[in-house]
């Protein structure tokens, strides 16, 4: 296979240059749009291979449609701090891809014999006999790239949303979608089909099905897929005792979500907990083709069926009390008087703030690690026109008070400090409550 040395050298440089840390709840990546998350555990770490949505520019992308030029990869060992390893592949690096199409849609990655195979769909160049969406493979020695693309897409496959799976006996399979969901065996080289593609039968007949993701647990093959049963996509699953089926539809993993037509997901087990990675348009509320990846925990029933996952803002993981605790990513909220809004609606990447406008309104943020009684002060970045009093408690709104923070009246944001008045140990839920009737806005809370 032809190797593109120049692309390789360029990507090596880029991978180092762009390695930065991002810290997040849901959505987990806050400095760019990310979608279609394929999460994988490689060498004890979680690697996330999402699509990279960008706002469609006139003359570049179709108006009001997906616009996707390249892929980044992210990694984490706690699901809270994510390292962006930079761009691993762009449409300009792939010989068969129409580099004016901005169609680098949902990818996935798998390892075999020390190599990482990155599967991605895109529009083939005009004149290519495999016009339309093809699925290509790019190979790397490392999970974070650089990835070297094959010169041609996989023969015999047309469609999107590739999902490779290797069974315990070493046989590899490729799932993908093109209205229906298809499967074929892959040869050991992971680059060619080893069987004729077949449509997976017994899935719902009506409504688009796409984004297949197959995993195996306790001998059961779970085929999970977004499906439009009503208006927008919801995530469903079917099970089988054979990766080629027949599958039996078992239920819904995540209901339709408001505002975002697509959902696309992956499911992994990491440190003895199962997680659902999925997307929503949190950072682009008025345009659902600019999406953001979220994570929530997923649980199985004893009989192997999957419990429905309710999307949360809080997401997963534990937040260190010395970090900026973004309480707008709350786990629970009072019935009245508390809400959230963007810090800057013209630049949603600035994140959110919590707003209180009624005495005793509160927000609860779960799983904050206070260590061993090491914090002496609470710090709040807040804004209050007429001055307000904020009370911090543990566990619930009536729980033990740990601090009272007086926010002086003012016309700008202020960072205010107040003493912690009791010993706090371990992982606790933090409750933030407004104690007077003046309004207050809070950007974040931290402890030192
Ligand atoms: O990201 C583009 C397309 O939207 C994906 O291929 C689908 O699964 C849907 O999420």
Please provide a brief summary of the model.
Helices cover 3% and strands 45% of the residues. The protein has 448 residues and is mainly beta.
Quick tags:
1 helix, 3% helix, 6-stranded mixed beta sheet, 5-stranded antiparallel beta sheet, 448 residues, binds beta-L-arabinofuranose, mainly beta
What is the radius of gyration? Answer: 24 Å
Portion of residues within helices: under 10%
Shape, principal axes of CA atoms: elongated
- Low-confidence spans: pLDDT under 50, at least 5 residues? 1-22
Secondary structure tally: strands: 31
**Small molecules held by this entry:** beta-L-arabinofuranose
Decide which structural class fits the backbone: mainly beta
The biggest sheet amounts to: 6 strands, mixed
Alpha-carbon distance between the termini? Answer: 56 Å
Q: What is the beta-strand fraction? A: over 45%
Mean pLDDT: 94
Total DSSP helices: 1
Blueprint of the fold:
Elements: H1 5-17, E1 20-23, E2 35-42, E3 45-51, E4 70-76, E5 81-90, E6 108-112, E7 115-123, E8 133-140, E9 148-149, E10 160-166, E11 172-178, E12 180-186, E13 198-199, E14 213-217, E15 220-228, E16 233-240, E17 248-254, E18 266-270, E19 273-280, E20 292-298, E21 319-320, E22 332-333, E23 338-342, E24 352-356, E25 362-372, E26 377-383, E27 388-394, E28 401-407, E29 414-419, E30 425-434, E31 440-447
The protein binds beta-L-arabinofuranose.
């Amino acid at each position: 296979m032809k190797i593109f040395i120049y692309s390789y050298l360029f990507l090596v440089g880029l991978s180092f240059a762009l390695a930065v840390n991002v810290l997040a709840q849901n959505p987990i990546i806050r400095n760019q749009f990310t979608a279609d998350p394929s999460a994988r555990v490689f060498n004890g770490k979680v690697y996330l291979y999402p699509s990279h949505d960008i706002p469609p520019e006139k003359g570049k992308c179709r108006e009001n449609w997906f616009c996707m030029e390249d892929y980044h990869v992210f990694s984490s060992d706690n699901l809270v701090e994510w390292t962006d390893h930079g761009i691993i592949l762009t449409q300009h690096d792939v010989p068969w891809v129409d580099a004016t199409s901005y169609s680098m849609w949902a990818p996935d990655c798998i390892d075999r014999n020390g190599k990482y195979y990155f599967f991605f769909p895109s529009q083939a160049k005009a004149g290519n006999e495999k016009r339309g969406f093809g699925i290509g493979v790019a190979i790397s020695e490392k999970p974070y790239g650089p990835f070297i693309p094959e010169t041609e897409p996989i023969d015999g496959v047309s469609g999107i949303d590739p999902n490779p799976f290797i069974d315990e006996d070493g046989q590899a399979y490729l799932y993908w979608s093109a209205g229906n969901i298809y499967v074929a065996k892959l040869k050991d080289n992971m680059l060619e089909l080893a069987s004729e593609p077949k449509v997976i039968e017994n899935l719902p007949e009506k409504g688009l099905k796409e984004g297949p993701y197959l995993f195996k647990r306790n001998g059961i093959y779970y085929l999970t897929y977004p499906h439009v049963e009503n208006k927008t996509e919801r995530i469903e699953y079917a099970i089988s005792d054979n990766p080629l089926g027949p599958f039996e539809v078992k239920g819904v993993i995540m209901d339709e979500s408001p505002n975002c037509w697509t959902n696309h997901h992956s499911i992994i087990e990491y440190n003895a907990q199962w997680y659902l990675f999925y997307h929503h348009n949190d950072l682009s509320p008025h345009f659902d083709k600019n999406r953001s990846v979220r994570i929530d925990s997923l649980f199985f029933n004893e009989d192997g069926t999957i419990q429905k996952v309710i999307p949360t803002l809080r997401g997963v993981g534990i937040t260190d009390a010395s970090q900026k605790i973004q309480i707008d990513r709350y786990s629970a909220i009072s019935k009245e008087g508390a809400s959230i809004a963007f810090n800057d609606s013209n630049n949603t990447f600035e994140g959110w703030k919590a707003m209180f406008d009624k005495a005793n309104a509160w927000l609860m943020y779960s799983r904050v690690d206070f260590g061993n009684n090491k914090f002496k002060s609470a710090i709040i970045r807040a804004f209050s026109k007429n001055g307000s009093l904020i009370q911090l408690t543990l566990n619930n709104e009536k729980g033990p008070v740990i601090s009272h923070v007086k926010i002086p009246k003012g016309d700008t944001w202020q960072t205010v400090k107040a003493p912690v008045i009791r010993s706090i140990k371990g992982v606790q839920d933090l409750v933030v409550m407004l104690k007077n009737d003046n309004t207050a806005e809070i950007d974040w809370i931290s402890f030192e």
